[in-house]
Hints:
6-stranded antiparallel barrel, rod-shaped, 27% helix, alpha+beta, single chain
Amino acid sequence: MKTLTRSVVLGMSALTLVSFSQASLAQENSAPPPVLVQVDEAREQAISQLTWVPGTILSQTDANLASEVDGRITWMAEVGDIIRAGEPLVVLDDTRLNITLNQNKSNIAQWQSQVTLFEKRLARYENLKANNNMSQGELDAVEADLENAKQELAQAKLDLSFTEYQLAQSRVKAPFTALVVERLQSPGEYTGVGQTLLRVVNPDNVEVQVRAPLTVLPYIESGMAVSVQSKTHQVEEAIRAIVPVGNANSRMMELRIAIKPGDFPIGSAVRVAIPSSDTHDGVTIPRDALVLRKSGTYIYQLNENNEAQQVKVRTGVGLGERIEVFGEINPSQYVVVRGAERLREGQKVRFEETNSTLTAKN
């Protein structure tokens, strides 16, 4: 009876151990999988307070073009056309100028013959004078006639050059790559010298015109990179020029920022982030990484085991989509940007790195 009892006890003990192992394995298998998150880097960088100021995209070359000759317009580029430098924008009727050109050529031929005639006469008179068969007064008169003919010939050639120049100017050519913005006259109309024909801009040479307060002057310099932003696009470009002159009413000065063609349409409104305080070193994170709680503001960083570590932070200067933070932050560890709201301290996560962002992976 005792032996039987011992066997039963041993069997029950073994059964208990097996059941415990199976329960532990089931509990381990039922542990929640790592949470999918999106992460980004905590970044050490130079930080300064930013002031967002309005700006306007404009072409550095915005011109009203006119003709140097008068005449009837026979052809004109359409609004929206892009005309390369040296190609015609406007063509004027050149009939009158061609008639004048032929008159100039006729005058040249006439005075050229007069010069030839007086040169021959002078040579003959000089021979006569050498034989004392000609008075000095007659010789002087022939020399004067020859000189006068030469001057008239020179004037006729100048008239021809001027007419040829006017003929060239009857085709108003683009002085640069020109986008036609506005027609101020139309084909068929008669235009006068200096009367505006077209408004054109150079679409390949654009910049931002910014009105900024004079108080930012100590914190900016030419060549400094600043953020230029519209509702749909953002770029980093350098300040090209600073005009440190304001007026008594606005206390505003002008900045010019060169941008690449095509980044923003000419005439569009943008915002520009201008430094307005001294620069200091600090740590920034994406704004989306902040987790707001009643007890304070937190972020989650990942340790070497991809476990979420909660860090309490204080915020500082905003830098667009990033913000300065203070706290026990490790700049070498990733910060959770998406999915932090549902994380717990020490919870495992999974993610992958891409060129543009850091996103979840299996």
